[in-house]
Write the structure tokens for this entry.
Amino acid sequence: VQLQASGGGLVQAGGSLRLSCAASGRTFGTYDMGWFRQAPGKEREFVAAIRWSSGGTSYADSVKGRFTISRDKAENTVYLQMNSLKPEDTAVYYCAADPRKISTWSSLAIMNYWGQGTQVTVSS
């Protein structure tokens, strides 16, 4: 599985960004997808995940009500719509693919596949 993330950038607090992650690979259909982030000096943390088959979702408490994860099955792409951004959302965002239940992702540090990361910077 190969993951290609895009869509990061610089935005003012209160603004919005949409991240995209295009997936490819022969075995892709068996994996769920999601996003993690890593701020400078901090560990990588779970942000959101989506079940590829059903569209069921899971979010970190810090982003609930502000971020929305979705997927386009025809395009093999997962999106992260980020609204009401805060300076503490500043991080490198990584998309991930893994066969384990998305309800467990918040406790996982290592995923089967990672994208290359995209920088999100929120200015105050």
Observations:
- The first strand starts at residue 2 and ends at 6.
- The CA atoms of residues 11 and 58 lie 25 Å apart.
- The chain has no helices and eleven strands.
